[in-house]
Fold this sequence. Notes:
The protein has helices spanning about 1-15, 25-30, 35-40, 45-55, 60-85, 95-125, 140-145.
Amino acid sequence: xxxVMKVISIAFDLDSGVIKRLPNLWEYSGYVLCxxxxxxxAWCSFQDYLNIYINPIWNIKWVIKAVQSLLLGxxxxxxxxxxxxxxxxxxSSEWWGMYRDALQFRTSHYFVSYLSETAAVLSGFGAQSNGxxxxxxxxxxxxxxxxxxxxx
Length: 152
């Protein structure tokens, strides 16, 4: 699925003029099969992929962002597997049980999203020109505690 999205993305970028030439076989294969984005996701554009190699930025903020994403993923995993069941026990009312099941489902998806973010950041995606690292695959706070439905 991600490979198809990347192929379509290259076609759109070529058509709109974002990419001036067709990528060669090595660039194309590297983009489609990039380890940081092909396993768990986090779609990134071909230009973002090229920027990893044109202007790599590896600093302490990169390590902090990767560790932060990994810890948030582990927290989501722990919530999904252990604590949600403990906070809302099975003998609760039917409505609380449905909420518990939905919360477990969502937090398990947050785990995969944060794992995807970690893999992408470790590969070099998310670097900005000012040395900061910014790549958000998921923002659970906007889903669980939205200010308005626009955030969801």
